[in-house]
Write a structure and sequence with these properties.
Elements: E1 16-22, E2 25-31, E3 50-56, H1 59-67, H2 69-77, E4 80-86, H3 88-99, E5 108-112, H4 116-121, H5 129-132, H6 149-156, E6 157-158, E7 171-172, E8 175-187, H7 188-193, H8 202-215, E9 220-223, H9 230-243, H10 259-274, H11 284-292, E10 296-302, H12 306-310, E11 321-324, E12 336-342, H13 350-360, H14 363-371, H15 379-382, H16 392-400, H17 415-431, H18 436-453
Parallel strand pairs: 3-4, 3-5, 9-10
Antiparallel strand pairs: 1-2, 5-12, 6-7, 8-10, 8-11, 8-12
């Protein structure tokens, strides 16, 4: 059975109590309702088990904790869940250490999508099809096909001929949970006061950012991450996809010295000129802060930022923002990234962990997490027009997902080294230490050598 064809789900109802008034007295009456999967599904088959769940200090996972869904799962199943939350830049090494042991401490992990192929091809995480094929473990109506298809591919599909994409021999290793695409958030007050149109192309975005920098007092154009290493690579990939630039060609030869790639860096250099001071050193945290504090009028990056941008406790501009599609250039393609969840191969509680994986990704549990500020990962949520008044970003997201590109970056096991080398070179170009052409030429042979050693090219 192909797990990507699983359909439908029973609505989750929790135990409830009703007050019946008779003769002026209130009597509490227990009302029995069906749990997820109906009364035939045994949620308590692993009662007494303890699971360790490793996940990041991240908007989506913080919303998971805020919503209290782990406690709900514990009450439903009798399974104890120990939360191991850490900064995501520290997670990879901790996870590899645990998953390299004969028996590891982790039973469920959150993984950044760029670790997926490394973990899957390295035998560190379990294929999920056997779990989904087991009727004693799988909810009969899980609605797998409601998960955003691009998110499923980028977070969970690996192996086979295409390594990190769907195709012959590929298997499912994870499901989306904290996944993202990209779109634009902008200051409606700035745009309305100055009669600005929302940019639909990168040429229009460049001109709009320039105008804001030059004409709007105390306000900069686009906020962007650009710090040396991972953050600079992320920013380049974010804009390279619409410009038509890629890291490799179809034969795994480096393609990042192409005219399209250089054009992407030239755009980024202009954004450095029109952006907040010091932006060439911005990580995601500084990128977020510049918009939340009202310093920059445009944000273009991960869609998970919508929650903080709308939150009065975090955002000074929460009441004057709008959402728009990622601008196009040669293509309309947007990023796909973020996090998925997977089960380590050396977990001693894999079946119980699969119950937790399913529970967290149920439609009704997703809704609870979204209401607490998390990121949607099911099409039924982003296409629910009844949510658009409170979540106007979902209407944009539904359209944007049509152009979400699961091949946005080459998630091969060697990506960690390549990502860092590219990010150093791109930052050198952004700071003016090298020309864009020289920066990319200088890293061409080192990255090609990585691909030769790994056997991708002769």
């Amino acid at each position: 059975m192909n797990v990507r064809k699983l359909v439908s789900i029973a609505i989750l109802l929790t135990a409830a109590a009703a007050l019946v008034f008779s003769g002026g007295a209130a009597e509490q009456v227990e009302v029995e309702v069906d749990p997820p999967g109906g009364r035939e599904f045994d949620w308590r088959q692993y009662e007494g088990t303890t699971l360790v769940f490793n996940f990041p200090n991240h908007v989506h996972y913080n919303a998971m904790l805020e919503a209290g869904v782990l406690e709900d799962f514990e009450a439903l199943t009798g399974i104890n869940v120990e939360a191991d939350r850490m900064q995501y830049m520290n997670m990879h090494d901790a996870q590899v250490l645990e998953m390299s042991k004969p028996v590891g401490d982790y039973d469920l992990i959150s993984m950044v999508v760029m670790w997926k192929a490394e973990y899957a091809l390295g035998g560190m995480i379990r294929p999920l099809e056997s779990f989904f094929d087991d009727p004693s473990l799988t909810l009969p109506d899980y609605r797998f096909d409601d998960l955003v298809p691009a998110y499923v591919e980028v977070t969970g599909i690996a192996g086979g001929e295409n390594i990190y994409k769907d195709g012959p021999g590929a298997q499912l290793y994870g499901v989306p949970f904290g996944s993202e695409t990209s779109f634009m958030i902008y200051r409606t007050d700035v745009f309305e006061e100055h009669g600005l149109e929302v940019p639909e192309t990168y040429d229009e975005l460049t001109e709009t950012a320039r105008y804001i920098y030059e004409e709007v007092p105390d306000t900069y154009g686009l906020t962007m991450r650009a710090a040396s290493g991972h953050h600079a690579t992320h920013a380049w990939l974010l804009h390279a996809s619409p410009y038509g630039a890629t890291v490799f060609d179809e034969n795994w030869e480096p393609a990042f010295t192409s005219p399209e790639s250089i054009e992407t860096i030239e755009f980024m250099k202009k954004m450095i000129d029109y952006g907040p001071p010091g932006m060439e050193g911005f990580t995601q945290d500084e990128e977020f802060a510049a918009f939340l504090q009202g310093d920059a009028a445009i944000y273009l990056d991960a869609s998970v930022f919508a929650g903080p941008a709308k939150d009065p406790a975090q955002s000074r501009v929460h009441d004057r923002i709008g959402f728009a599609l990622h601008p196009r250039q040669r293509t309309p393609l947007a990023e796909t990234g973020g996090f998925g969840i997977a089960i380590p191969e050396n977990s001693q509680n894999a079946e119980a962990a699969f119950l937790l994986m399913q529970y967290l990704t149920l439609p009704e549990v997703e809704r609870e997490i979204v209401l607490a500020g998390g990121a949607p990962f099911r099409m039924s949520t982003v296409e629910d027009s009844s949510l658009y008044d409170e979540y106007p970003e979902f209407e944009v997201l539904a359209d944007q997902l049509e152009h979400a590109n699961p091949d946005w970056r080459p998630i091969i096991p060697e990506w960690g080294d390549i990502n860092n080398m590219l990010g150093i070179a791109i930052n050198q170009a952004l700071t003016g230490a090298k020309t864009p052409e020289q920066a990319m030429e200088d890293v061409y042979e080192p990255i090609r050598n990585v691909m030769i050693r790994a056997g991708y090219i002769d």
